[in-house]
Amino acid sequence: MTLANDERLEEAKEAYEKVLALRPNDEGALLNLGDIWERLGDLERALACYEQVRNRNPENPEALEGCVRLLASMGKAAKALPLARRWVSLEGDNAEAWNWYALCLTDLGDWEAAEKAFKEALRREPAQERYWNNYGTLLLDQGRYEEALARLTRPSTWMSRTPWATTIAATPWNSWAVTTRPSRHTGKPWLSIRRIPRSSSAPPACSRSAKSGTRRGGCGGPI
User: Fold this and answer.
1) Angle at which helices 95-107 and 61-73 pack, to 10 degrees?
2) Is residue 196 a contact partner of residue 207, using CB atoms and an 8 Å limit?
């Protein structure tokens, strides 16, 4: 983000703060201010804005989305889960709501429910690469490597567009080495996969950090 953009955000922040000084219950102003704090990197203040709206209007989907995204990204999946469940109940056709619900379930170790939720997201948006990546990574976490590979190397996914993915999809490997660790920035896992081919030493492990609402699986480019 450039300095000019930062300055414009600061101006917008001050404008919304003035609006809220006059109309402290203005939900639109609170949501916009939360978005600005989020863009400025102050997640705690952003969350406070979204929670103010949610406390006044528990069924505001934008406030629920903001709370779920930030709580999950801050490693607070247990707090995010009931809100994600509420978001899904209010917007059952929203694929992003199902994706975040699945991510919360994944972080809490409820893999069966998470898989069902990812399938719901994909049923609504079957071309969304992030959802296929998240679903494939969930399968990797369970050691279901062949199933994961089938999803991570679909024709529309980023792995299918890399030489590495083409090679592993066509070659019989003796074993895989998979490790994960949480990202302190997003709360989502970083995933590292080592492939061990026949009669060859294992190549260096590759890892990619997770973006908001996305978990990374394998080596490759951005989603």
Assistant:
1) 30
2) no
DSSP-derived pairing of the beta strands 173-182 and 206-208: unpaired
| C-alpha torsion 212→216→222→223, nearest 10 | -70
Residue 60: strand, helix, or coil = coil
CA distance 118 to 33: 31
Q: What is the pLDDT of residue 161?
A: 54
Task: Using 50 as the pLDDT threshold, list the residues of the chain that sit under it.
Answer: 1-4, 162-185, 189-191, 195-196, 198-212, 216-223
Q: Which of 118, 132, 57 is nearest to 66 (CA)?
A: 57
CB 99, CB 131: distance < 8 Å: yes
Question: Measured between alpha carbons, how far apart are the two ends of the chain, in Å?
Answer: 20
**pLDDT tens per residue, range 111-124:** 999 999 999 999 99
* Residue at token pair 């062949």: 146
Neighbours of 2 (CB within 10 A): 7
Contacts of 119 (CB under 8 A, 6+ apart): 135
DSSP assigned state of 195: E
Task: Please give the backbone phi and psi of residue 194, each rounded to the nearest 5 degrees, phi first.
Answer: -115, 130
| Both structure tokens of 61 | 């989907």
The structure tokens listed for 95 are: 């694929």
Rama region for 162: left / alpha / beta (φ>0; ψ in -120 to 50; rest): beta
For 203, the token pair is 């190549």
Contact present, 73 and 186 (Cβ < 8 Å) = yes
- Please give the structure tokens belonging to residue 194: 């080592």
